[in-house]
Request: fold
Amino acid sequence: EMLRSLVGSEMCIRDSIYAYKRDGILGQEIVIHRLIAIMEDGRYQFKGDNNELPDEVLVEREDIGYEIIGH
Reply:
């Protein structure tokens, strides 16, 4: 697997997996999930491939750092 920086890149729904930051129990954590929706307000919704439901928290663009390629 490889990481590709998202600076100046567009994001695609369903076919790509991204790494993003969120606040966790022990502070900031990195999450690697699939993008499933881009909301009207510009935030992003993700879902883990093995999770039944999407992530509850919507993610801001500046918190998404890399696309995972070659998965």
